[in-house]
């Protein structure tokens, strides 16, 4: 039998009884948040914020399942919960909001922002929205049908329904049920708020006119107040702007073909993981609806028992064994026994997915993908409901979810696993670093979120996991976001030179040569302000610095400290206000010290001999020459890699650097991040440990945060200050680890979060995943840089070789122009095929 013949037969049978399409729409009007149906049904819509339930601890998940079951059991008979989950690609409002949040208007910031937004348009975010429509009826329908009686005439001047009293009673019942549902979902940890009339109208407008999605002005027209008698067009008639066409294969509306895929066989088992996997496999552009109806429990149990008895009777009077009847009777007994044991309610559940496409082939391909996805739902089966696509389309309208012809009685415990309420954490309320979750949903992280008790973070990742790459990604956005943001990096791996070149930062590569000089002594005016004695903080720092150079690790007597202070005052006395002494001047002052007894002179002379280690030879090239480092740059890097083999010098520098940065940190109007990369090497040294501890304890008061990066959990946990670092770091970034996953519990991760960290995915040239623990929230994010960001951060040998060749061939290009050119030619890196498209 051909498709066309079936279609003609259906049309022939239904020609007389079928109403025009717009009259099959129940929704007649929206008034002050109440959805009014032609049939007298009233509803209310809510926007629900999904939760990533499966990243919770096992006991929390178990508790959630029990509380959800109790929530469903508390629903009154006659209530209908209609969930609609909308997933679609792209979110221009998000991109515009991100662009508006960036205060940097310099050419570099504008170029970087444009490259980000261009990349996100090419690789769009997945926008998932979850709506819940709660509805109640003034009477119980005898049949489940979408052929609605035309009682729109009742909505005239006299009344909204056949009876004003009945309408008010139904509205009171709606308020009661909606309030219980809203509070119940909030108790389960979901964010819930009533939908505005404009939001509901916007959803309807985009559903009926997908080709012009985003024209909000048109959606607002649907709600335009028109006095009765002036215009008789109702909301439902204004929705259908184009004549729909329904045939066997699809439902065509507004330039799109639609197909509905219905749940045709219940899952063999239901779990929270199965509904999550099912939604993930559905694809990026679809609508999912789940409707739960609460029938009269006693009547429903009696009906199930009666059907079981009929099945037994059928088998008893059959000449042969009727296995189907036996199975049906057994299922009925088992179902009723389960209800008696668990005190679950019977709910009618219907589930369907709607996909659309510009062509029949496109929509057929998408529906095929949805059919395969149903197997992920605990072995459930779906069906492309031909000849019912228009009817299924209507079930995605508020008030009409229960019109799905395929509804199944299930216990509330099973219904709890079917709720489409799972989704990744969306991030902080304030705009921040914009990432993708593993679901491709947007994730915004404000690294200085006011809710954080401290702004510190730790980052873990094995060699090659992309720690420095991810850090560069975070810091680049942080500096783009506002001019009043600054970053200081203490690095032992040489990973931030390119980022410093791009941003015009100050890069201090410490080595025993004459390329750099770091005179630790301030000018006279800084140490001795006019008409005042010495700055006590500065003076104390200089004395402690000299003590560490002369005799580290031993206690100093008060008389010995006084010798140092006298020499400092004598050396500064003869300087001009803008002059600063050298370390050699202090050495000479100690050698020629005469302000004391013979014992003091002997000690001072011995101090000068010990100090010669830092005034002469290789160390003197750094510490005993005029010259200071530019601490005013917004991005400052201290690369200590080359002095790792000089422990005495490294320890002194680790004492000088934090004090030199102290004045910068005291500016409370600036948000600052201090990055300690490869800090496991710092934590091996006593001075490094002191440096890290001081910053972790004091940075919170200075509007600053510390990001410590290392390779293994043991690097932090075996440190003397592990408690200070881990307990004061509400943010944890976990990249791919080769070992030590079992130690992550000490960082506040539960067993399911640790499992997620074990299974992080890396696709070279595309993205790498990172588990982020942001205070109490856990989320799996993607590090997916655009081509320009990639070339700014990459340290891959093949990339560096290509960069060197380009610099040699075009020496006049600036650093940023070099990266722009490479991003255009090799958007995926030098090892990927060359391209001529723009980054």
Name the descriptors.
31 helices; 839 residues; 18% strand; 25 strands; Rossmann fold; alpha+beta; 13-stranded antiparallel sheet; 12-stranded mixed sheet
Give a brief rundown of this model.
By secondary structure, the protein is an alpha+beta fold.
Task: Describe the secondary structure blueprint for this structure.
Blueprint: H1 3-14, E1 27-31, E2 34-37, E3 42-49, H2 58-73, E4 80-89, H3 92-101, H4 107-122, E5 126-136, H5 164-187, E6 191-194, H6 197-208, H7 216-221, H8 235-239, E7 245-246, E8 251-253, E9 256-265, H9 272-281, E10 286-293, H10 297-316, H11 323-342, E11 346-357, H12 360-374, E12 381-384, H13 389-394, E13 408-411, H14 412-415, E14 433-437, E15 442-445, E16 457-460, H15 467-481, E17 485-491, H16 497-503, E18 506-509, H17 524-527, H18 536-550, H19 558-573, H20 583-591, H21 598-615, H22 617-623, E19 635-639, H23 647-665, E20 671-676, H24 679-683, H25 686-698, E21 704-710, H26 713-717, H27 722-727, E22 731-734, H28 751-758, E23 762-763, E24 767-774, E25 777-783, H29 787-793, H30 797-809, H31 815-825
Parallel strand pairs: 16-21, 16-22, 17-19, 17-20, 18-19, 20-21
Antiparallel strand pairs: 1-2, 2-3, 3-5, 3-6, 4-5, 4-10, 7-8, 8-9, 9-11, 9-12, 10-11, 11-13, 14-15, 14-25, 22-24, 23-24, 24-25
């Amino acid at each position: 039998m051909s498709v066309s013949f079936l279609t003609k037969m259906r049309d022939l049978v239904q020609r007389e009884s079928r109403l025009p399409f717009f009259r099959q729409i129940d929704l007649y009007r929206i008034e002050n948040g109440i959805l009014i149906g032609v049939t007298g049904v009233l509803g209310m819509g809510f926007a629900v914020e999904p939760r990533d339930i499966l990243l919770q601890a096992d006991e929390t998940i178990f508790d959630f399942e029990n509380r959800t079951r109790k929530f469903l059991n508390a629903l009154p008979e006659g209530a209908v919960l209609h969930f609609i989950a909308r997933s679609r690609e792209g979110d221009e409002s998000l991109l515009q909001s991100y662009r508006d949040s960036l205060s940097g208007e310099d050419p570099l910031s504008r170029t970087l922002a444009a490259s980000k937004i261009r990349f996100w348009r090419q690789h769009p975010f997945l926008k998932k929205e979850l709506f819940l429509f709660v509805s109640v009826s003034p009477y119980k329908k005898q049949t489940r049908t979408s052929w609605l009686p035309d009682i729109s005439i009742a909505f005239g001047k006299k009344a909204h329904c056949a009876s004003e009293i009945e309408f008010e009673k139904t509205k009171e019942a709606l308020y009661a049920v909606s309030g219980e549902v809203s509070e119940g979902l909030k108790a389960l940890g979901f964010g819930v708020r009533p939908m505005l009339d404009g939001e509901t109208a916007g959803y309807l407008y985009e559903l009926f006119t997908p080709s012009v999605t985003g024209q909000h002005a048109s959606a607002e027209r649907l709600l335009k107040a028109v006095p009765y008698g002036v215009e008789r067009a109702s909301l439902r008639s204004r929705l259908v702007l184009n004549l729909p066409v329904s045939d066997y294969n699809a439902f065509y509306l507004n330039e799109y073909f639609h197909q509905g895929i219905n749940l045709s066989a219940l899952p063999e088992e239901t779990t929270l993981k199965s509904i999550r996997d099912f939604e993930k496999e559905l694809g990026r552009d679809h609508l999912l609806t789940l409707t739960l109806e609460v029938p009269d429990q006693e009547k429903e149990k009696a009906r199930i028992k009666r059907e079981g008895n009929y099945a037994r009777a059928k088998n008893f009077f059959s000449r042969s064994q009727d296995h189907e009847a036996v199975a049906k009777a057994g299922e009925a007994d088992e179902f009723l026994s389960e209800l008696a044991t668990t005190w679950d309610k019977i709910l009618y559940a219907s589930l369907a997915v709607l996909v659309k496409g510009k062509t029949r082939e496109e929509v057929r391909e998408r529906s095929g993908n949805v059919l395969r996805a149903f197997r992920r739902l605990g072995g459930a089966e779906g069906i492309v409901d031909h000849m019912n696509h228009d009817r299924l389309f209507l079930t995605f309208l508020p008030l009409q979810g229960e019109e799905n012809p395929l509804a199944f009685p299930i216990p509330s415990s099973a219904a709890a696993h079917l709720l489409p309420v799972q989704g990744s954490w969306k991030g902080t309320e304030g705009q921040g670093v914009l990432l993708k979750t593993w679901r491709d949903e947007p994730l915004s992280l404000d690294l200085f979120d006011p809710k954080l008790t401290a702004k510190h973070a730790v980052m873990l990742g094995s060699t090659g996991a992309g720690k420095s790459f991810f850090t560069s990604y975070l810091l680049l956005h942080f500096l783009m976001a506002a001019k009043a943001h600054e970053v200081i990096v203490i690095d032992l791996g040489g990973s931030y030179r390119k980022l410093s070149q791009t941003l015009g930062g100050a890069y201090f590569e410490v080595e025993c040569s004459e390329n750099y000089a770091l005179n630790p002594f301030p000018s006279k005016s800084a140490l001795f302000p006019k008409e005042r004695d010495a700055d006590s903080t500065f003076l104390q720092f200089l004395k402690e610095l000299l003590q560490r150079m002369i005799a580290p690790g031993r206690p100093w007597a008060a008389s010995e400290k006084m010798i140092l202070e006298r020499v400092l005052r004598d050396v500064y006395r003869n300087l001009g206000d803008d002059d600063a002494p050298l370390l050699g001047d202090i050495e000479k002052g100690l050698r020629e010290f005469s302000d004391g007894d013979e014992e003091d002179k002997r000690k001072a002379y011995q101090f000068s001999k010990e100090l010669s280690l830092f005034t002469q030879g290789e160390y003197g090239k750094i510490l005993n020459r005029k010259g200071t480092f530019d601490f005013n740059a917004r991005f400052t890097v201290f690369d200590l890699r080359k002095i790792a083999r000089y422990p005495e010098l490294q320890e002194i520098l680790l004492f000088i650097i934090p004090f030199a940065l102290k004045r910068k940190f005291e500016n409370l109007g600036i948000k600052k991040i201090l990055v300690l990369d490869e800090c496991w090497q710092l934590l091996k040294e006593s001075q490094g440990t002191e440096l890290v501890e001081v910053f972790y304890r004091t940075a919170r008061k200075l509007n600053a945060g510390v990001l410590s990066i290392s390779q293994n959990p043991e690097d932090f946990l075996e440190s003397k200050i592990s408690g200070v670092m881990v307990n004061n770091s509400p943010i944890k970034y976990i990249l791919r680890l080769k070992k030590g996953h079992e130690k992550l519990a000490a960082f506040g991760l539960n067993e399911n979060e640790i499992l997620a960290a074990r299974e992080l995915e890396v696709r070279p040239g595309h993205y790498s995943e990172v588990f982020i623990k942001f205070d109490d929230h856990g989320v799996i994010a993607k590090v997916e840089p655009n081509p320009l960001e990639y070339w700014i951060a990459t340290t891959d040998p093949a990339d560096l070789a290509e960069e060197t060749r380009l610099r040699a061939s075009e020496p006049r290009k600036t650093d940023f122009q070099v990266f722009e050119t490479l991003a255009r030619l090799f958007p995926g890196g030098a090892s990927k095929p060359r391209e001529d498209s723009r980054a």
